[in-house]
Amino acid sequence: MTLLCLLNRGGAARGLRSTSHASSTICCGRHNVNINPTPTAARESQLRLNFTNTYPRYFATASQPLHTMGSVDKPSLAGIDLPIIKLDTTLTELFRRASPQNASTRLGMVFCGVNSGVDLNPDFPRNTKYLYQDSPFNTVPRKELTRKNHDLRKSLAMKYLSLIPQRDAFIAGPSPVIMFNMNQSPATVAHDREEATTTLSVLDPSQRPNLVFCPGPSKIPMKEYGIDKITYKIVADGLESYPLTHSLETHWILNSKAGLARSGLPTPRCDIISIKGYPPASPRSCCDACRADKRSNDLTFIPESCSGPSGQWVKTESAKVLSAISSRPVPFVLKNQQVFGGAGTWVVTTQEQKDDLLSDFSSPDGPLRKLLSQVTPENHHMDPAAVVISDMVSNPIGDYGLTFFVNEDGEPVFLAASEQMIDGNNAWVGSTIVYSRQEALYEKFQALMSRTAEFVAKHGYVGPVGIDVLETGTEGETETHCGERTKFHIVDLNVRTSGSLALPLLKGHFTQRGLDCASSFGITVKGGREEFVRKWRREFEEGRMFVLSWYEDREEGASIADVVVGAENEEGLQGMIERVREGSEEVVF
After folding, report:
1. Which pLDDT score, from 0 to 100, does residue 120 have?
2. Residues of the chain whose pLDDT is less than 50?
């Protein structure tokens, strides 16, 4: 098993797009944009980010001292002189601008990932209410989704509790960022902190976040760190008891595939196969087969051998989904309701692929039965097991990823428009952003961005948003779900931070060094951070390469990481990426 590869690629072998651990590229050009609307026609233009502005600190001073990043002002390894990185702005500053009347509210930021298949550790249980289908949930045999599977849990925890949070903490700014430990052994607690603080020590001291480590979501020290509210990337069940910037349920629905279909935004025509109700009996009261399964397995599951009412319910609802797939002509795209890490999306272009999909979904241990088994009286109203089957966009001529920040009044702050890249498996592998084209792309997508921002803002959301857009050559070439004739089709809506969000905020860092392009991408390497930095010493000292997130598994002698590289032009950047990847060894965890 190449488990680390499975996690990094997020099930991309069948996914339309993986958002978790791939490359994103920015080419920095000559355009600066202004964060304030022009004085003419009050709302004629959207807010756009002036990366050269310096904003006042967003959050109020804590009522008692925070644990800070440390006293290192200039990061270095022995004999290596690492430059300080100054971001053009931070999430802290963007939040302050988005809601000036709440500028005194002290936000704590939670950037961890979650899953519904297995507990990450004793203090971070799997989600049972707000379901997410990541790659392990969909592909790992159900009997392996257990607390005894230490390798799987460790690999997930490395990614969800350290790698992803570090990446977003890098752009958080001087705010409390809540991090959760892999486990509570003294050595691991110290290692978790060391990895995160080393990554973030390259930032200008004024932009370093205040890291708050704790065991799990139920043990966040709000009062101790003077935190008023929590803002978050992904919904974790354990956050329900805290004061939040927006509703967990609303956030989950906004990010759901059915939520996009029902939004009124232009998205390809689709059918939503909803699930009616929930299993009518608990595992303990259903039948002998369910009781035996519950005693021997961690993940709630209604086995094929169930002879009780829950088994009949699964058969009825499964038949409805399988019938919808079977009757749908190819090509089409099928998506689970709520996914994370690029899993849960199947692009079906041939009858053979359709047959494989039907085989997977009808399997006694397949993703459909696993998902239906997780529907409960507490979550069924959100329709978490629904399946969305949509038309494919015909003859797309452009594939873009827009990132922007939504203000309280519904105005978007444009950050960047990237041009997407996909591989032979239709999986997202990167984005290229050319800054000399940003002004034109901003004008092209201004109206769509504004509509999307207005939609999420009316549901109470303030924060970063990403949308993936396919462009066709003529209006109406692909039918939209809302009946609108358009060239632009939103195929994914991510109401959260994106993996490439750091890149627009690094424009100044790179252009000051004469570097027009930058990219962030994931690597797996033997050894630790220091060996990697020494191998690429010149690039690190010149500021054309740095670590965005890093976690070393010292037991295995290997690491997973996100790195950022810069180059003078696109050709040079691609060469740099290839050299780094060729020099990184594939590691099996």
Report:
1. 96
2. 1-22, 27-47, 50-72, 423, 427-429, 586-589
pLDDT number for residue 420 = 62
Q: Under a CB-based contact definition with an 8 Å cutoff, are residues 11 and 135 in contact?
A: yes
Pairing of strands 24-27, 428-434: parallel
The burial class, CB within 10 Å (0-12 / 13-18 / 19+), for 74 is exposed
Q: Is the separation of the CB atoms in 372 and 384 below 8 Å? A: no
Residue 38 phi, psi (nearest 5): -65, 155
Which pair of tokens denotes residue 220?
């966040």
Give the DSSP letter of residue 86: -
In terms of residues, how long is the chain? 589
DSSP E strand stretches across 450-494: 463-472, 488-494
Q: Which bin fits 5, alpha (ψ -120 to 50), beta or left (φ > 0)?
A: alpha
Q: Which amino acid is at 405?
A: F
What is the Cα–Cα distance from 378 to 307, expressed in whole angstroms? 24
Contact status, residue 412 vs residue 450, Cβ threshold 8 Å: yes
For residues 208 and 212, give the distance between their C-alpha atoms in angstroms, rounded to a whole number: 12
pLDDT of residue 193: 97
What gap in Å lies between CA 348 and CA 517, rounded to an integer? Answer: 34
CA angle, 436 then 440 then 444, to 5°: 150
C-alpha gyration radius of the chain:
23
Take residue 440 and report the two structure tokens written for it.
């034109």
Using a cut of 0.85, tell me whether the model's pTM lies above it.
Answer: yes
Preceding amide of 331 cis, omega within 30: yes
Instruction: Quickly list DSSP for 190-220.
Output: HHHHHHHHHHHTTB-GGG--EEEEESSGGG-
**Cα atoms found within 13 Å of the Cα of residue 230, Cβ hemisphere only:** 27
Report pLDDT for 484.
87
How far apart (Å, rounded) are the C-alpha atoms in residues 250 and 240? Answer: 12
Compute how many other C-beta atoms are within 10 angstroms of the C-beta atom of residue 389: 20
